[in-house]
Write a structure and sequence with these properties.
The protein is of the alpha/beta class. About 45% of the residues lie in helices and about 15% in strands. The protein has one domain: Rossmann fold. Helix 3 crosses helix 4, helix 4 packs across helix 5 and helix 10 packs across helix 11. The longest helix is centred in the N-terminal third of the chain and has 19 residues. The chain binds pyridoxal-5'-phosphate. Pyridoxal-5'-phosphate binds next to helix 11. Belongs to the threonine synthase family. Pfam families: PALP, THR4_C, Thr_synth_N. One of its GO terms (molecular function) is pyridoxal phosphate binding.
Length: about 475
């Protein structure tokens, strides 16, 4: 499979190079040249074969040619071996025909583990084969950093540096980043906010000499390999509920549009998905896009579902590329207007196509809290605020009750104990397998918000 950029001006790459590159050189995102189809009888054959074998069947056509079947299956097995549930992504019933797909059984209790754990294994494989090493640098407001550290800790070919805003992540999130003892893991507390961290990462990538010297690599949510890993659980969930013989709908708590774009890919591969519901908190640029056709930035408002507090939804560009008939120049024009004027109007045909496939819903802070409380009362389930946004949006747009509705449960409630406790009166506790981080020694380096200081630290600490 070959990968092309959404802006049409970057080199066409194989899966391995697209994964290592992350962002395309023209500023676009890599997408597969074609979408492989899985015929209905093969989807039917996925029933009961387990998560790992489904993952292999779904992903193999996308990586073919660059990673052998045995290598891919080995990477999948290692990636998910540490998950705490045999099903990896179990379904929990919350209503007559309504379900939560629990994606929080990985090592850091959020769905990002599904992609990060696999990408860690694939990086090790591809780099080992080439005799290369990389320095991964990323900024985090919480979940992404811990998932990346968990995925890359102890790997030979990789050093990982995660920048987080000093004093501004939750205690659990910080401890997840600062307690791993492996020498290739570096949690860095920047004296600044999340935007400062992100600006520092960008500046390091834009310093091309430094970037080459350190072999910098990124594993943020625009990396195609991350999206691909997320396609898998749409298949396992839908097949459990009767696909390919009956369609299934999904409601997806959305920030960067990565998780829900994976659902769109599953549908294009032939999985009978009826509706895809874009669920947002008050940072609702995507909900407004679906309802008004205007994609316009507003300021970010902090919420109790912080992993969706985003105003630039990077992966939406991948959908735009499809909605605009894969016209790279048209994508460039809209992204330019987003950058310069803060927004754009979707062309009419593109908007019609968007609405054909997607619904959307928004939850205010009060609605999110009320949903957490109602879930606890009605079903006994204690859900996290991101998942609650998905439940609320699903209820808003619930059409055909005969079609199963699956809400993606994106995080464990114990990652957000204060908000959940306040909403429903039950303060969720960390699963036993994570309890040790509350006592373990922390290791972190505090740096000023200063590019030169940070670059000096990386030069000193990274193995090359
Ligand atoms: C990252 C994240 C999201 C948003 O996912 P996107 O792929 O960015 O849309 C939702 N919930 C949780 C808990 C997350 O960590």
């Amino acid at each position: 499979m070959r990968y092309v950029s959404t802006r049409g001006q970057a080199p066409v790459l194989g899966f391995d190079d697209a994964m290592l590159a992350g962002l395309a050189r023209d500023g676009g995102l890599y997408v597969p040249e074609t979408v492989p189809q899985i015929p209905a009888h093969e989807i039917a054959d996925l029933a009961g074969i387990g998560y790992e074998r489904t993952a292999f069947a779904v992903m193999q056509p996308f990586v073919g040619g660059t990673i052998s079947d045995a290598e891919l299956y080995g990477a999948i097995e290692r990636a998910y071996a540490g998950f705490a549930h045999a099903a990896r992504a179990p379904l929990v019933q919350i209503g007559e025909n309504d379900w939560i797909l629990e994606l929080h059984h990985g090592p850091t209790l959020a769905f990002k583990d599904f992609a990060m754990q696999l990408i860690g294994q694939l990086f090790e494989l591809v780099l080992g084969r080439r005799g290369q090493r990389v320095t991964i640098v990323g900024a985090t407001s919480g979940d992404t950093g811990s998932a990346a550290i968990e995925a890359f800790r102890g790997l030979d070919a990789v050093d990982v540096f995660i920048l987080y805003p000093h004093g501004r992540v939750s205690e659990i999130q910080r401890r997840q980043m600062t307690t791993p003892t492996e020498a290739n893991v570096h949690a860095i507390a920047v004296e600044g906010d999340f935007d400062d961290c992100q600006a520092l990462v960008k500046a390091m990538f834009n310093d091309h000499a430094f970037r080459d010297e350190m072999s910098l690599a990124a594993v943020n949510s625009i990396n195609w390999a991350r999206v691909l890993a997320q396609v898998v659980y749409y298949f396992t969930a839908a097949v459990s509920l009767g696909a390919p013989h009956r369609p299934v709908s999904f409601s997806v708590p959305t920030g960067n549009f990565g998780d829900i774009f994976a659902g769109h890919v599953a549908k294009r591969m032939g999985l009978p998905i009826d509706r895809l519901v874009i669920a947002t908190n008050r940072n609702d640029i995507l909900h407004r896009t679906v309802t008004t056709g205007m994609h316009v930035k507003e300021g970010v408002q902090p919420t109790i579902s912080p992993s969706m507090d985003i105003q630039i939804s990077s992966n939406f560009e991948r959908l735009l590329f499809e909605l605009l008939d894969r016209d790279g120049q048209a994508v460039i024009n809209l992204m330019e207007s987003l950058r310069q004027q803060g927004g754009f109007a979707l062309p009419e045909t593109a908007l019609a196509r968007l609405r054909q496939e997607f619904d959307s819903g928004m939850a205010t802070e009060d609605e999110t809290r009320a949903t957490i409380a109602a879930m606890r009362e009605v079903t006994g389930q204690v859900i996290d605020p991101h998942t609650a946004v998905g439940v609320k949006a699903a209820a808003d747009v619930r059409g055909n009750a005969g079609t199963p509705m699956v809400v993606l449960g994106t995080a464990h409630a114990a990652k957000f104990p204060d908000a959940v406790g306040q909403a429903c009166g039950v303060r969720p506790v960390l699963p036993a397998r994570l309890a040790h981080i509350e006592l373990a020694r922390e290791r972190t380096t505090v740096v000023p918000n200063d590019l030169a200081a940070l670059q000096a630290l990386l030069r000193q600490e990274a193995r090359r």
